[in-house]
């Protein structure tokens, strides 16, 4: 198989998504039982759930520069260690304050892994496979979410329920750390550190018939142009990549995905399901759909392109959010049907998100920045992702209880409309364009809607 080692490397690195996905999903079920242990207020529930995002902001903010200095591989391994320790701390937390602090510590790993793994995969991938391989990361996230939902189901009937749920996060941390021990760093980072022979060896392993000298010379030429005496100088053409990167993070988060992932059981109970166990089983079904539909994105990202998937997904997300708002608004009239309409809306939402915004947002962020600041730039985008995430997740239980589900989900629906407009005017189609050519397009002032390849 021509690209055997490339796929092996991409799959192992993508296991980092298990970290993010597991932590994202496990709190949804654990929260129901944590609330029984300590009877948390709406505000404290929001703080507990969003505390991981505080740590994620710190992780994303501080480790972009470290990734450019120490390499992608070492930073990925560090996230695994942080996640293992944090999961143990969460499981043994004696009170809610320690639990909040422990989840914030886990958040450091979540913040780092969400930029470093897509960056790592993007830099090892040939242009015709880049979208597919970076999509593997999102599939790993959905795998982690699904794994966490199954763990919630398994431990929902056990003693010390939520503690076992949180402790199980040690498993994906160990898998990632052991796997990355055997991996190499990306050839593009190695070239930036003048480790040319190592870069050649990696290129030949992941893409045997590549013209190594040509590839290395293109990367070295870009680095020499950008170097400017080893000092970074912000240039006007860099404004658009940052606007697109941060805009895609806003689009991914502020259309409401993590209100559903974090609070799915809570939403189901609000919609009419009468028990924790039933709500958790319904949530597990959502996780299965999320996992399966991400496969669609993996298949079509490099065939149809990034923007067609975004148009389709955002339109479906918009419709499902307004329909969900309607099910809450007319709950008295719909009676028993209201909760099943809610389930249908959530399933539709997840289908549309999983095959579009989920993977495509990370693909675009991993592609649009110049090589010499790619780690730093992606960390800024992921920082904004978690900042948006914190605001949305922390406010959701308050909004749901104060203004109701109808108004809450209508707000997300309106945001979706604005995001469709943003994608149409400002997001470039990067399918089949090399990372080096994307950078050249920016430097030459090519408008995002008219990107070209060599």
Describe the structure.
There is one protein chain. The chain is built from 21 helices and no strands. Helix 6 packs antiparallel against helix 7, helix 12 (239-254) packs parallel to helix 19 and helix 13 runs parallel beside helix 19 (374-402). The protein is globular. The mean pLDDT is 83. The protein has one domain (4-183, 236-443): Growth Hormone, Chain: A (Up-down Bundle). It is an all-alpha fold and 454 residues long. The longest helix has 29 residues, at 42-70.
Number of helices: 21
Query: What's the overall average pLDDT, rounded?
Result: 83
The CATH homologous superfamily: MFS general substrate transporter like domains
Strand-residue proportion: under 5%
Q: How many whole angstroms does the radius of gyration measure?
A: 22 Å
What fold name stands as the CATH topology?
Growth Hormone, Chain: A
Provide the CATH architecture.
Up-down Bundle
Overall spatial form: globular
- The level 1 CATH classification is Mainly Alpha
**Which segments are poorly predicted (pLDDT under 50) over 5 or more consecutive residues?**
none
Distance between the termini: 28 Å
What count of structural domains? 1
What profile does the largest beta sheet have?
Answer: none
Total strand segments: 0
Quickly give the structural class.
mainly alpha
N-to-C series of helices and strands:
HHHHHHHHHHHHHHHHHHHHH
The percentage helix is over 70%
